[in-house]
Amino acid sequence: MHSSLTPAAQSEQPSKERTRLTVSVVICAYTEDRWLLLQQSVASVQHQRRTPMEIIVCVDHNDALLERCRRHWEHRTASPSVPVVVLANKYQGRLGSARNTAAEIAQGDIVAFLDDDAWADPDWLERLLEPYGSDLVVAVGGAPMPEFEGPRPRWFPFEFDWVFGCAYCGLPESQAPLARLIGANMSVRRLALADIGGFHSDNHDDMDMCHRLMHQRPAEQIVYEPTARVQHFVPSARTTWGYFWRRCFFVNRGKVEAFRQMGGASNLSADVGFVGQALSRGVSRELRQAFRGDIWAAARAAVILAGIALAGAGHVAGQAKWHTGRMQWRRHRRDGRPVPRPARSAPVAGEPAPIRPIDAPLPKSGIGTQPQE
Questions:
Q1: Could you tell me the pTM of the whole model?
Q2: Which of 98, 225, 249, 268 has the fewest Cβ atoms surrounding its Cβ within 10 A?
Q3: CB neighbours of 166 closer than 8 A, spacing ≥ 6?
Q4: Which among 210, 187, 203, 3 has a CA at the least distance from the CA of 100?
């Protein structure tokens, strides 16, 4: 089963028509625990100043949620100008595969992605689409702002709001080119997404997409527009030290495999830049605040250092895991034995679930194409 994302044979529309680009909004969901948030997410898109041509809700391997979504949206006429299409993830994978499933049927010139626990400001699409007035812009992302269930932890540094899937200190404060977008609030030209074969990663789909786009289209730009805002819900369970350290470690461990799968599209420049900025600006800022009497500032400085150390440890662990897997793969190939698949156990909080064996070939058409087990 291969992704049917295919680039059109014809060139894109003339520049004079770009001001009226159409947009499909994709929202992927996987749990009924977020039902109220999902409803709020869809409603926020239905009431945009810039009306999308469709909203696609793709349900990720949850039959009960799929049926609930169909009952709720498919035959409603409350907002007839914005049809809601509900479908199931047809691939074995998770988020990246669900986004591929939705993008395959999207009709808009632009495909925008919104998380099921995020809701958009009324001018979100208007601001997100504005940079596409330039032919050189291939993808645009906005700022997901944290909406905390409880109070924000005073020890938590703003540089690490990416742990929540939110905009973080260090991102541009005005429209500017950016190496990577945040998956909770991003968009891409549909034909460009098709050109790279859709999403190739479940756990790092946003990073993977951005790297592949820039590798294939070096003369074009990925743009960050911070005024295109959505509110991203952060449950209290994600504001603990345990969640923080697991995300810092396991996300960066998983990046190693994602980078290996990218081939020539991979690079660590964004990661190195983040570390340099967090150390030079973040730590120094917090130490100045501590000197002025902020008793929590020293803790935030320490957490920045700890987060960077955990990320580095995760990268080293990922490299070791990758090389161990390659050695095992080569040994089994040499001996003519089948390559063992990793056990599918429930992940620790913050750790991505494995979706394929290490060093398994990745089809050009994207993730989710491996046979069902």
A1: 0.84
A2: 268
A3: 143, 144, 145, 146, 182, 184, 232, 234
A4: 3
